[in-house]
Automatic annotation (TrEMBL):
Organism: Lactiplantibacillus plantarum (strain ATCC BAA-793 / NCIMB 8826 / WCFS1)
Residues passing through the membrane, by range: 12-35, 41-63, 168-188, 224-245, 257-277, 289-309, 315-332, 352-374, 380-400
One GO molecular-function entry: transmembrane transporter activity
InterPro entries: MFS, MFS_trans_sf
Name by which UniProt lists this protein: Transport protein, major facilitator superfamily (MFS)
Subcellular location per the Swiss-Prot or TrEMBL entry: Cell membrane
Gene Ontology cellular component list: plasma membrane
Protein's UniProt keywords contain Chloroplast: no
Length: 404
């Protein structure tokens, strides 16, 4: 671990990721607060919620663009500078709280998020290019852990800026500074993220889906439709837990040993801890599992957590379940990408992983909204029961697909 932490490529990527995640998480909470102050706030908040998710749908497109970029390092640094410039422009207009300005602000944030997806695809290519196969899983886990740890920090900073100064323009300037910080880290470590000739040449046009099908079959012994469908369901199950807990803790307030806000904080801290430990540890019992066995464990974690919420909704058990969900998520994603990387042509890394990311995250927002509606209309028992059923469906699908 200590040797890996001295790797210059990892240091450069992780430090840039620190500033980028800080800025993105900071302004997402700012944007929601900004939208909430308009008349008919539900409409404007809904627009923000949708627009912040939409860039993930373009993962395949931004990934292909990253694959076809010649001077990847220059463009990566350039995107951070452009993002900083966008938020400096935003800081000049956001003080005017009109509907037109709102849509301009949302559009700027959307463009910045698209550039962030493009830059993220380039960084994935850099990891494949500059990090050895034995270290890729841990590097990707460490980099993901940085995002997981920094996101609550960025949200807290955003809330602090609004609470103390009520200044949206200041938030825009601070966000611009975070992207300048990211660009500075990339510039300082430029030699460590420079592409080698094997990924520097513009590739010929190759369709991503046949490659994904082949890679999935080779690494998971499942068809691409089955494996990605299972991951999509797993993502819905994992992301819906937060939505249910936010509502359930209100209903359980009289039986909780701590206040509502403290309970939410404890859940977030435990989940982050589990995710980080899952990402950075390398020699645990879970690391000996095959990708299929790890997938089953990752499905069982949220499923058992929903059973806990339904049968014995005690805080200590809920925290244990959330730790397991975070830990298994931190294990599965880096291992999956690390195993797949050697099977993918370096010219298609961004396209393939971007497409996979788009497919897997596509249903999560819809699932979360649906489960909240079900909870409010029918109740906690129905919401938890449905999610147990959804998790069981993913488990059965995985077993049957693996046997074929």
């Amino acid at each position: 671990m200590l040797t890996l932490l001295k790797n210059r490529t990892l240091q450069t990527i992780a430090s840039a990721n620190f500033f980028t995640t800080l800025g993105v998480s900071l302004f997402n909470i700012i944007l929601l607060t900004y939208a909430k102050n308009f008349p008919n706030p539900h409409w404007f908040v809904a627009i923000v919620s949708v627009v912040t998710v939409v860039p993930y749908v373009f993962g395949g497109l931004t990934g292909r663009l990253a694959d076809q970029t010649r001077r990847k390092t220059n463009w990566l640094i350039g995107t951070k500078v452009v993002q900083a410039g966008l938020y400096l422009v935003l800081a000049q207009v956001i003080t005017q709280q009109t509907v037109v300005v709102f849509y301009v602000v949302v559009a700027i944030n959307f463009i910045s998020d698209l550039l962030g997806r493009y830059g993220g695809s380039i960084l994935t290519i850099v990891i494949q290019d500059r990090i050895g196969p034995d270290d890729r899983q841990q590097v990707m886990g460490l980099n993901a852990s940085v995002s997981t740890l920094v996101e609550p920090l960025g949200q807290t900073l955003g809330v602090l800026i609004i609470a103390q100064w009520h200044d949206y323009a200041l938030a825009g300037i601070v966000n611009a500074m975070t992207f300048i910080g990211a660009a500075s880290c990339l510039l300082a470590g430029r030699s460590a993220i420079q592409s080698t000739p094997k990924v520097a040449v513009r590739p010929r046009h190759i369709e991503a889906w046949p490659v994904i099908q082949r890679v999935m079959l080779t690494t998971t012994r499942m068809g691409a439709v089955s494996y990605l469908g299972i991951l999509m369901i797993l993502n819905v199950a994992t992301m819906s837990i937060d939505a249910i807990l936010n509502l359930m803790f209100i209903d359980l307030a009289s039986r909780m040993p701590v206040s509502y806000s403290v309970a939410i904080l404890m859940v977030n801290v435990v989940f982050v801890t589990g995710s980080v430990l899952g990402g950075i540890t390398k020699n645990t019992w879970f690391d000996r599992l095959s990708l299929f066995q790890l997938l089953l464990a990752a499905i069982l974690a949220p499923m058992l957590t929903y059973v806990t919420l339904l049968v014995v909704p005690q805080l200590i058990l809920i925290l244990g379940g959330m730790f397991a969900v975070g830990f298994m998520s931190g294990k599965l994603d880096p291992k999956m990408f690390a195993i797949m990387m050697p099977q993918i042509d370096p010219h298609l890394t961004g396209t393939v992983f971007g497409t996979i990311s788009s497919i897997v995250t596509l249903a999560a927002p819809v699932g979360s909204v649906g489960i909240v509606l079900l909870y409010n209309l029918v109740g906690a028992t129905a919401a938890c029961s449905v999610m147990i059923g959804v998790s069981a469906l993913a488990l059965i699908w995985a077993v049957m697909a693996h046997r074929q």
